[in-house]
Design a protein that fits this description.
InterPro entries: FAD-bd (IPR002938), FAD-dep_Monooxygenase_BioMet (IPR050493), FAD/NAD-bd_sf (IPR036188). Residues 15-173 form the FAD-binding domain. It holds the Pfam family FAD_binding_3. This is FAD-binding domain-containing protein. Keywords: FAD, Flavoprotein, Monooxygenase, Oxidoreductase. The chain has 459 residues and is of the alpha/beta class. It has a domain at 13-182 and 291-434: 3-Layer(bba) Sandwich (FAD/NAD(P)-binding domain). The chain has helices at 21-32, 57-65, 69-75, 103-106, 114-127, 172-176, 196-200, 203-206, 270-278, 320-335, 344-373, 379-390, 404-419, 422-437, and strands spanning 13-17, 36-40, 52-55, 77-78, 81-86, 91-97, 110-113, 131-133, 138-141, 147-150, 155-157, 160-163, 186-195, 213-219, 222-229, 234-243, 281-288, 303-305. The strands form 4 sheets. A 7-stranded mixed sheet has the order 6-5-14-15-16-13-17, with helices on both faces. Strands 8-2-1-12-18 form a 5-stranded parallel sheet. It has a 3-stranded antiparallel sheet with strand order 3-7-4. The two termini are 40 Å apart.
């Protein structure tokens, strides 16, 4: 259902640090709710990535609620299923398809080019009056005063500062209270893109050219997911590989020689190696495992974490970009209800109580799920494959059906993530606790703390 945002009675000044997808989405949602928004981005705004972004149902739902269904249908590629391959010989496990059983939870799963999505959000933000300032590097922010410090010596004031500055956020430590503790576990992410015409000329790759079908390989220490984009004109993918080397690569905009990482690419399936070899661009980054935070809002209710700064989920997960859109929608819906300035801290408390437990769950699930996908070849891998095979349909078998009980055991947490509705969560919260917001300005919880315990160990 599409809706138009209610406008706030009081307009605040928000300063959003970071002009990536999460920063633009948050800026748009807050401006749409009636607030003044200044977005600060260190780049010149001309970067445009050709790689793909997955929009699972929870993210697509936000875009539809913003009234963008028609536009999104035009620029995004609908996904109706995923073909899975596993093990050293890339044996087919079957396909996950959006049939009668899955359509209520997994429909509206799309692929869209990163640059196309970013351009759309930039255009929408500007239409809502967001003041986007490129070539503006932020050094820090003062949680007491709300001033953001710039590298040219200048300062910008915000009633609320939104930290949307990504995985290596400069502002996250202010909210967390300390730098993230170093974690030796690292992941190499390789994103690649190539014209579809390249696959058409290779008989082994040609079979992958199904516009609504994605391919997913899982193997010892890695997984790879790939799919078509731009109505079939382009092909893109991402490889997530365990990494223990000395290299550190933090800038997505730079193209690196992948041989410098000393990875045994011989373990990759032949088709994946061919895709890498033919790719017109390969972007790399090394991600350190990070834990969830106790709070997404600083003690003074000045600085708020969104997107990768809030929940640093490794790229390659279904939900990396979705969580940023959920953050944006949550803040937009909450601050459309602002009636007095002394309610700011309570609305930020609501944001934290709605989003922090969910962030913890999503992060823990993703790390656990990726460990399962990358397990070493052997009995454990064979048992995993047998369980996954039972959850899929086999397109070459007549009247084949998945094991629905096993499906819920294997994919249940993903389905929970797909079903999340950020606007509904705010409405539920407001229906139960909204009356308490008008009673006082103190930043104290009006909602009992929700504790979600999720094991991060691989069974």
């Amino acid at each position: 259902m599409e809706s138009v945002a209610d406008n706030t009675s009081v307009s605040l000044k928000f300063v959003v640090v970071g002009g990536g997808i999460s920063g633009l989405a948050t800026s748009y949602a807050l401006a749409r709710a009636g607030h003044k928004v200044i977005l600060l981005e260190k780049s010149d705004g001309t970067e445009s990535s050709a790689v793909g972004v997955r929009s699972p149902p929870s993210m697509t739902r936000v875009l539809h609620q913003w009234g963008l269904k028609h536009i999104f249908d035009e620029i995004a590629q609908l996904c109706r299923g995923i073909s899975w391959y596993s093990g050293p010989n890339a044996e087919p496990l079957g396909s996950l398809v959006v049939d009668d059983f899955l359509k209520e939870v997994a429909a509206n799963f799309y692929f869209i080019q990163h640059g196309t999505l970013q351009d759309l959000l930039e255009r929408l933000a500007k239409q809502e009056g967001v003041d986007i300032r490129y070539n503006t590097r932020v050094l820090g922010a003062d949680p007491d005063t709300g001033y953001v410090s710039l590298n040219d010596g200048g300062q910008i004031y915000g009633d609320v500062v939104i930290a949307a500055d990504g995985y290596n956020s400069a502002l996250r430590a202010i909210v967390v209270g300390e730098e993230d503790k170093p974690n030796p576990e690292k992941t190499l992410i390789l994103s690649f893109a190539l014209p579809t015409a390249v696959l058409e000329g290779d008989p082994e790759l040609r079979s992958m050219l199904v516009p609504t079908l994605s391919s997913f390989w899982i193997g010892e220490g890695y997984f790879c997911v790939s799919h078509m984009l731009n109505k079939g004109r382009d092909y893109t993918g991402i490889i997530s590989h365990k990494y223990s080397g000395p290299q550190e690569v933090n800038d997505w905009t730079l193209v690196h020689d992948i041989n410098q990482f000393d990875i045994d690419f011989g373990k990759l399936d032949t088709r994946v190696k061919k895709l890498l070899a033919h790719a017109t661009s390969v972007y790399s980054r090394i991600i350190h495992t990070k834990s969830s935070v106790d709070s997404l809002v600083c003690e003074n209710s000045r600085i708020v974490l969104v997107g990768d700064a809030a929940h640093p989920i490794p790229h390659g997960a279904n939900h990396c970009q979705a969580l940023g859109f959920e953050d944006a929608q949550t803040l937009g819906c909450l601050f459309s209800r602002l009636q007095r300035r002394d309610q700011v801290s309570q609305l930020l408390t609501a944001y934290n109580e709605i989003r922090q437990p969910w962030s913890h769950f999503a992060l823990a699930h993703t790390y656990r799920h990726h460990q399962m996908l990358k397990m070493p070849n052997g009995p454990g891998q064979q048992m995993r494959d047998a369980r996954m095979r039972a959850t899929m349909v086999h397109l070459d078998v007549e009247d084949d059906h998945m094991d629905e009980v096993m499906f819920k055991q294997v994919w249940g947490d993903d389905l929970r993530l797909f079903l999340y509705d950020a606007r509904e969560k705010v409405e539920d919260w407001w229906g139960q606790w909204g009356a308490s917001i008008v009673k006082g300005p103190n930043r104290t919880s009006v909602l009992p703390r929700v504790q979600i315990s999720v094991s991060t160990k691989t069974e």
